[in-house]
Amino acid sequence: MFECNSTSGCDESCFNRVVGRGISLPLQVFKTVGRGWGVRSRNPIRAGTFVCEYTGVMLRDEDAEAAGLEVGSSELLTSHEGPSGVDARTQDNPELCVDASRTGSVARFVNHCCDPNLFSVFVEYSRHVHRIALFAARDILAYEELTYDYGYVVGSVQDKTLACLCGAANCRGTLV
Ligand SMILES: C[S@@+](CC[C@H](N)C(=O)[O-])C[C@H]1O[C@@H](n2cnc3c(N)ncnc32)[C@H](O)[C@@H]1O
Question: Which of the four CATH numbers 3.90.220.20, 3.40.50.2000, 2.30.130.30, 2.170.270.10 does domain 19-148 have?
Answer without folding.
Answer: 2.170.270.10
